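Researcher: I've been going back and forth with a colleague about how Gfo/Idh/MocA-like oxidoreductase N-terminal domain-containing protein might be arranged in three dimensions. Neither of us has a model we trust, so I'd like an independent prediction. The organism is Granulicatella elegans ATCC 700633, in case that matters for your notes. Sequence below.
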Amino acid sequence: MKKLAIIGTGWISSSFVEAVQQTNSFEVVSVYSRTLQKAEEFAKKHQIPSWTNQWGEFLLENNWDVVYIGSPNHTHGDYSKQLLEHQKNIIVEKPSFLSVEEWDEVHQLATEKNLFVIEAIRHYYEPAFQEIRKIIAPRMNEVKGAVLSYAKYSSKYDAFLRGEIANSFSLSSGGGALMDLGVYPIYNAISWFGMPEKAHYQARKLQNQADGQGIVSLEYPTFDVTIFVGKVLNVCLPQEIYFGKETLQINDCQEIKEVKTLYMSEVVETKEYELRRNPLEWEAIGFVKILERTPESLKQYEQSKKISRNVLEVIEALRNSAGITFN
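Model: Here is an independent structure prediction for Gfo/Idh/MocA-like oxidoreductase N-terminal domain-containing protein. You can compare it with whatever you and your colleague have in mind.
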């Protein structure tokens, strides 16, 4: 079993560690946080034997060779480059990097070092997600359009209204609705339909100019995909893909448990899928397979890398269209 270290002590890191422990995917041996107390509390909560707030010491630890980066978005690039220089494989929470340029720099270094940089995008590894890809692929010439969404009222939004700006709402941290939640349905669109010809984002900006919500339009040669994203409202719509008289209706953007086929608006088939208690379990299992370096896992890794870069390229185009810049 490979040994894993953790960077960041937020809820996403905690959920990932729990998923790893529930699936026996890795042995978690160390955690780093800039705040020693947070590192210690996190380590004791998850029974991790080592913790530190000394970055130099953390880099030199030789009892692990895989690291999960769950820190704020703007830290991913610098952390990744330093970790690769110290021969560490990387699992980096979505969005992996802030720009295509940064993505290219990190992955070029990883290739030179013969190491992995894997984006943690949890629903990509769900069986239902991959099956939907297989359903759509042979019918691409029949697709007439799709409506996707991921918008949830953020637990940090009320504090934002009081003037307390969390990383997920901060442009200096690479935050905003598109980067935080929009990445999920955009992953769906790119994975299922490929790269669009045009991409536009009609963003509704908050007082600090970060996007609180918006509508993404992806233009393909014969159809369009509309995506609703937001951190200041709840959207409860299913995901829908249109094939003329038929509609594929998916219960959610992620944690997909039910896919219905409708013919002329009448349900003709319903498929149900297993959900894990912790939705990050599927990706934890997937990461272990990639790190095994089998021919099949290496093929999967290259495919996931291509999609990761394409998603970031589209997000960058969307940000540019909306005038969103990170400062």
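Researcher: What would you highlight for our discussion?
Model: I'd start with this: The two ends are 41 Å apart (CA to CA). After that, consider the following. The chain is about 40% helix and 25% strand.
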